[in-house]
Amino acid sequence: MNPAPTNTPKSDYVIIVSNDGDEFYLERRIAFVSEILEGMIRRAPYDKGYRKIYLENIKGSVLEIVIQYLHYKSRYQLTDFERVKPPKFPIEPRLALDVLKASLSLKL
Hints:
This protein has 4 helices and 4 strands; from the N terminus they run ββααββαα.
């Protein structure tokens, strides 16, 4: 589980909860890379100062990889690939199918 961020305004972070109860604190701007997450977050109520959403079809180990990918995509989405080649995004083969299903459901 990610530790809760400190000294940040409530609107800068969101809490995403997996189906097995793992909670992840994620910067709102990173979460908004996914239009699906953005819509869910905008409709979510505040819980202790954070918007909190539940992804009931994604387990924690997979959600952790999806969140890593959101950071990766946010960093490299505006890259000129003809000049700079971003590093490969590694995924363990045993989790690849679950990560693919999760990324499709979140339209990544």
